[in-house]
Design goal:
37% of the residues lie in helices and 25% in strands. It is of the alpha/beta class. α6 links the parallel β7 (169-173) and β8. It binds adenosine-5'-triphosphate. Residues 15, 18, 20, 38, 40-46 line the site of adenosine-5'-triphosphate. This is ABC transporter ATP-binding protein.
Length: 250
């Protein structure tokens, strides 16, 4: 069995009187694809924000790759190898795909946005950006402006921007949202191709995607993980069926 790369212990986040996460506990193994599912409002996105570091928990602990990162700001978590795929609003729409990726590579190296840089490191950065573009299926679109990409291609670019930070674990919040069947199939194939070297944690409402992609699934209800297991175990789990899946996957 693989080692645990992420241990989430008793995370709580309250918004006024509402506990969006209410003692969420979860273990993610190195190299696995781990899906978070649950009904609307169960706290999935809140949990992803807490793991990424964009939302501070009110209680609980996050241990990543052997270190307690609960109090670390997001940028330091990215440096430690814990990255989140962002919505396209965070990319430079009027810059080409390749430049967006090169900026993400630069951000990882801690580079500032100086206008003078040694030519060799500049070339290395662009070579690396091109390699990431290839990995996410955008090798033919290097010169295309980000805001001219199709919706599915923008999602591929988002994944590429996260990959450019060279993560050990990648968090994805509803990667398939708003995509048609062809685009979904393409992104699914891309995520499949990442398995192994990288650990993936994703929130996804498309159960076909979840059950095809995930090695293990955690089910969140009212801010707590009520069950964790393989797709077969989750499909058959009486509490999960009662709380969420019902006849959907019968
Ligand atoms: N910033 C916020 N302020 C107040 N309430 C919030 C905030 N963010 C989330 N909530 C509430 O916390 C609960 C959990 O929300 P969250 O978005 O984490 O659930 P989710 O499982 O991702 O839902 P969905 O599947 O609908 O995206 C919801 O009741 C939501 O309304």
């Amino acid at each position: 069995m693989s080692a645990t790369i992420l241990h989430v212990d008793g995370l709580v986040k309250r918004f006024g009187g509402l506990a969006a996460t209410d003692g969420a506990t979860l273990d993610v193994r190195a190299g696995e694809v781990h899906a978070l599912i649950g009904p609307n409002g169960a706290g999935k996105t809140t949990l992803i924000h807490q793991i990424a570091g964009s939302l501070a928990p009110d209680a609980g602990r996050i241990v990543f790759d052997g270190a307690d990162v609960t109090a670390l700001p997001m940028a330091k978590r990215v440096h430690a190898g814990l990255a989140r795929s962002y919505q396209i609003t965070n990319v430079f729409g009027r810059l080409p795909v390749l430049d967006n990726l090169a900026l993400a590579v630069q951000a990882r190296s801690g580079g500032s946005l100086r206008f003078w840089r040694p030519a060799r490191s500049e070339r290395a950065r662009y070579d690396e950006a091109a390699a990431v573009a290839e990995r996410v299926g955008l090798a033919a679109k290097l010169g295309r402006l980000a805001n001219e990409l199709s919706h599915g291609e923008q999602r591929q670019l988002e994944v590429g921007l996260a990959l450019a930070t060279n993560p050990k674990l990648l968090l994805l919040d509803e990667p398939m949202a708003g995509m048609g069947p062809d685009e979904t199939a393409r992104l699914l194939a891309l995520l499949q191709s990442l398995r192994g070297g990288l650990t993936l944690v994703l929130v996804e409402h498309d159960m076909d995607v979840v059950f095809q992609l995930a090695d293990r699934i955690s089910t969140l209800v009212s801010g707590r993980v009520i069950a964790c297991g393989t797709p077969d175990e989750i499909r058959a789990h009486p509490d999960v069926r009662r709380a969420y899946l019902g006849d959907e996957i019968a």
